[in-house]
């Protein structure tokens, strides 16, 4: 007994319907590049808060610190994800440059205990020494942090960063011999 053609037609319609449903699900679950997707980028508006005072900012330096932390997180989101060690380095660097971040209106001089309490800092050294084996991302970590620091306070305060290296090979490679 032959199979009627209506069964084949119904099966073909079902296959087409299943393919269309599969494409819809695939498109809804697809990764999209937020940087290039203008519609998504406009709704996120994280960039619009950078460098601008927000309701949660108590001190003027809070704007700089929040901006710098946001810039560092944007570095992570854009493909240069920091290691756990680099995040520890940056947490130490934040404390070290706090006097620069909170320089406006002499906040660091007059409100240091309140600022430290607000940020859950026990102490804030003016220097940070990193001593780890090779390939822990020290140089790249410093470069990322310095760039984010310059972007968060550079226009307003004119922060300067000095980076010293004990590695002669890196010094020679920099072309300053």
How much helical structure, as a percent, in the residues?
Answer: 55-70%
Task: Give the SSE string.
Answer: HHHHHHHH
Calculate the mean pLDDT score and round it: 80
Helix/strand/pairing class, anyone? Answer: mainly alpha
* β-strand amount: under 5%
Q: What is the general shape? A: elongated
Main beta-sheet annotation:
none
Beginning-to-end CA distance, first to last residue? 91 Å
Keywords summarizing the entry:
single chain; 177 residues; elongated
Describe the 3D structure:
By secondary structure, the protein is mostly helical. It has a domain at 51-173. 59% of the residues lie in helices and 0% in strands. It is built from 8 helices and no strands. The protein has helices spanning 5-29, 38-44, 60-77, 84-96, 98-101, 107-118, 138-157, 168-173. Helix 3 (60-77) packs antiparallel against helix 7 and helix 4 packs parallel to helix 7. The radius of gyration is 26 Å and the shape is elongated. The N and C termini lie far apart (91 Å). Mean pLDDT is 80; it is low at 156-160.
């Amino acid at each position: 007994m032959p199979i009627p053609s209506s069964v084949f037609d119904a099966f073909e319609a079902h296959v087409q319907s299943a393919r269309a449903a599969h494409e819809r699900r695939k498109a809804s679950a697809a990764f999209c590049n937020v940087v290039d997707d203008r519609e998504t980028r406009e709704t996120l508006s994280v960039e619009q808060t950078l460098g601008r005072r927000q309701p949660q900012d108590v001190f003027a330096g809070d704007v700089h610190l929040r901006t710098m932390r946001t810039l560092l997180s944007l570095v992570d989101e854009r493909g240069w994800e920091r290691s756990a060690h680099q995040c520890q380095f940056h947490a130490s660097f934040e404390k070290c440059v706090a006097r620069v971040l909170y320089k406006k209106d002499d906040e660091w001089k007059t409100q240091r205990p309140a600022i430290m309490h607000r940020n859950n800092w026990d102490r804030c050294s003016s220097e940070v020494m990193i001593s780890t084996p090779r390939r822990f991302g020290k140089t790249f970590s410093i470069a990322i942090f310095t760039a984010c620091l310059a972007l968060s306070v550079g226009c307003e305060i004119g922060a300067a960063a000095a980076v010293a290296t004990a590695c002669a090979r890196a010094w020679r490679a920099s072309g300053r011999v």
